[in-house]
């Protein structure tokens, strides 16, 4: 049986980008994906590129590298990823002081500009002026995430990579799947929200977590949403921090350590379709059942308060898992005590920094020094392994 240099588990955005960068370095690479329909977090992503959002020297550097990478990515992958620039509107609720909301972004690389209610509604006429005290705005990148993943995969295959659709069950004695066992010198887990349970099934404890994310996807519509709308106070990050304080809670399926939250926002793609979201729910069982009708009502009501004309558009409720770490930094590198097993997961701002980090990771495993990867391997993973 063929032995590969690398097996990449998961063909979402992170896995596809990393598999492509590894095969570019001359490695033999097998990419494994369990879902033939790609109904993962990438599929239901807003597609936003927050190049402006770096808050530390390292994250600012990666955002800058992300800009440079995206500027050539369509040409390199020989595909249209629908890269564009949008106005991001961060809505401020009526019970919040706009100046305090603006001050909370002062440490970002490009702090958003504060807008009055009139200015916000001029920029986005679909806004309900009665629901906001103002808004923040900044230029925001955007791609079609599905087309970008497919572009990465097709470029990976053209470069000599191989791909199989199968579910991985164990990683310790070869990569065991539901159909066969594959062998490689190295395995990297890029399975997003499934990463924790996959590693746990192999007896490997690691502090990477997941939310159950819920959103509504519409078909192409005539309504024109000019901007990407999100709340200025994103509750998701607080939810992630609170729910990951006690790792032991995650060892029992079915726990719900914190209440779900809803960050009401919307984005329209170039074909006219919309994503409306999103609910983030912490249930420690990745296969947990969610009440779709109740969730959809909650989503439509909350969207309707901010963007009334979008509330009753035809659309379908969807659910996926979204990975995160306890400190909003990705979990990257070798897993101590398990030779040849790596992780590349837990991204809170994935679309911006995955392309440069995938490139850096591939260079690093090829023998090149990389301060960022080495730093995260030593700090994030030592803190992240039980």
Structural overview:
The chain contains ten helices and 17 strands. It has 386 residues and is an alpha/beta fold. The chain has helices at 13-24, 57-77, 98-103, 117-123, 145-158, 195-201, 236-243, 292-306, 350-365, 371-384; strands at residues 3-9, 29-33, 48-49, 84-93, 113-115, 132-142, 162-165, 168-170, 175-177, 181-189, 209-217, 228-231, 261-268, 274-281, 316-324, 331-334, 341-345. β8 (168-170) and β9 (175-177) form a beta hairpin. The strands form three sheets. Strands 1, 2, 7, 8, 9, 10, 16 and 17 form an eight-stranded mixed beta sheet that branches. The chain has two domains: 3-80 and 144-207 and 327-384, FAD/NAD(P)-binding domain; 124-141 and 209-323, D-Amino Acid Oxidase, Chain A, domain 2, CATH 3.30.9.
> Hey, roughly how much beta strand do the residues contain?
25-35%
Q: What class, by secondary structure content?
A: alpha/beta
What is the tally of beta strands? 17
Instruction: Count structural domains.
Output: 2
CATH class of the largest domain, named: Alpha Beta
Which stretches are low in confidence, meaning pLDDT under 50 for 5 or more residues running?
A: 378-386
Furnish the topology, listing elements before pairings.
Layout lengths: L2 E7 L3 H12 L4 E5 L14 E2 L7 H21 L6 E10 L4 H6 L9 E3 L1 H7 L8 E11 L2 H14 L3 E4 L2 E3 L4 E3 L3 E9 L5 H7 L7 E9 L10 E4 L4 H8 L17 E8 L5 E8 L10 H15 L9 E9 L6 E4 L6 E5 L4 H16 L5 H14 L2
Parallel strand pairs: 1-2, 1-10, 2-7, 4-12, 10-17
Antiparallel strand pairs: 3-6, 4-6, 5-6, 8-9, 9-10, 11-14, 11-15, 13-14, 16-17
Helix pairs in contact: 1-5, 1-9, 2-9
């Amino acid at each position: 049986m063929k032995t590969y240099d690398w097996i990449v588990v998961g063909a979402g955005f992170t896995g596809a980008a990393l598999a492509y960068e590894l095969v570019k370095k001359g490695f033999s690479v097998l990419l494994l994906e369990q879902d033939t329909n790609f109904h993962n977090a990438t599929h239901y992503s807003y597609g936003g590129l927050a190049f402006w959002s770096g808050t530390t020297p390292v994250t600012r550097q990666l955002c800058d590298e992300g800009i440079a990478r995206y500027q050539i990515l369509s040409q390199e992958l020989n595909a249209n990823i629908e890269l564009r620039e949008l106005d991001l509107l961060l809505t401020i609720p009526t019970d919040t002081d706009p100046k305090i909301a603006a001050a909370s972004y002062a440490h970002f690389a490009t702090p958003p500009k504060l807008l009055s209610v009139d200015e916000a509604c001029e920029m986005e006429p679909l806004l309900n002026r009665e629901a906001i005290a103002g808004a923040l705005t900044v230029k925001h990148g955007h791609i079609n995430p599905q087309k970008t993943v497919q572009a990465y995969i097709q470029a990976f295959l053209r470069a000599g990579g191989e791909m199989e659709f199968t579910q991985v069950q164990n990683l310790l004695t070869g990569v065991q799947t539901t159909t066969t066992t594959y062998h490689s010198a190295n395995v990297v887990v890029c399975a997003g929200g499934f990463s924790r349970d996959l590693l746990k099934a192999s007896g490997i404890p690691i502090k990477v977590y997941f939310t159950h994310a819920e959103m509504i996807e519409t078909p192409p519509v005539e309504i024109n949403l000019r901007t990407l709308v999100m709340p200025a106070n994103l509750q998701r990050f607080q939810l992630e921090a609170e729910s990951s304080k006690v790792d032991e809670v995650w060892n029992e399926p079915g726990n719900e350590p914190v209440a779900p939250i809803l960050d009401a926002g919307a984005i329209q793609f170039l074909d006219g379709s919309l994503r409306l979201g999103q609910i983030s729910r912490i249930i420690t069982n990745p296969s947990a059942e969610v009440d779709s009708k109740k969730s959809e009502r909650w989503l439509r009501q909350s969207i309707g308060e901010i963007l009334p004309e979008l509330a009753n558009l035809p659309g379908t409720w969807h659910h996926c898992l979204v990975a995160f770490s306890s400190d909003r930094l990705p979990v990257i590198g070798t897993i101590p005590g398990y030779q040849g097993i790596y992780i590349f997961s837990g991204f809170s701002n994935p679309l911006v920094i995955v392309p440069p980090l995938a490139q850096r990771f591939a260079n690093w495993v090829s023998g090149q020094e990389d301060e960022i990867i080495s730093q995260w391997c030593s700090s994030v993973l030592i803190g992240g392994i039980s």
